[in-house]
Amino acid sequence: MEEPHSPEEAEAAWNKIFEVLRPPPRERIQLLRPGHEIQVADFAWASPMVPRDKEGMVHLTGYDENMLNIWYADLGLSEVRYVGAKPTTYPNGKNPFPVRAPTISATLLLGRLKLAFTSRWLWWKTRHIRRQNLLKYAQATKEGP
Predict the structure, then answer these.
(1) CA angle 8, 14, 20 (to 5 degrees)
(2) d(CA 53, CA 141)
(3) Is 53 exposed, middle or buried (0-12, 13-18, 19+ CB in 10 A)?
(4) Looking at the predicted structure, is the pLDDT value of residue 2 above 70?
(5) Is the peptide bond between 25 and the residue preceding it cis, with omega within 30 degrees of 0?
C-alpha cells in the first residue's frame, strides 16, 4: 500500500505547467470538449490523480483563457515538456497558459449549424404543441361539461 502524499509532495506535484509535444491516444483522454482537440504546443496544468498518477504518466488539464477546462488526459513524460510553475497572478484576469483555439474545420462549422437549426426547430415544435393544446383545451372549457 502506498503512503499518502506529504503536503510538500502534493504542492510540488500540483505546481507544474507542461507543454504538449505529442497528443495522447484517445483511450487516455478522459474529457474533451466538442470542437476541440489536444494539439502540439498546447499548455496543460498538472492535476495529479489521487492517490497517485500512473507510473511514467502525468495527469494534465487544459484550460482556455477564461479557465474553462477543455480537456483532461494522461500523458507520458515523453509526450510533454515541463515549462515551469503555475502562475500566482493572472494579467487582466486571463489565463496566461491557455490551450490553443481549435482550427476551424468543416466538421466544427457543420456541428454549429446543426446545433443552431436543432435548437430553433425544438423551440418551434414546443411553441406549436403549446398552441395546439391551448386551442384544444380552451374549446373544451367553452363547450362545458
Answers:
(1) 140
(2) 66
(3) middle
(4) no
(5) no
Cell readout for 31 is 474529457
Grid coordinates of 44: 496543460
Report the alpha-carbon distance of residue 23 to residue 36 in Å, rounded. Answer: 12
C-alpha to C-alpha distances, 100 to 3, 47, 115, nearest whole angstrom: 37, 19, 23
Q: Look at 137 and 29; give whichever has higher pLDDT.
A: 29
d(CA 41, CA 17): 12
**Model pTM?**
0.63
Identify the CA nearest to 44 among candidates 98, 4, 87, 120. Answer: 98
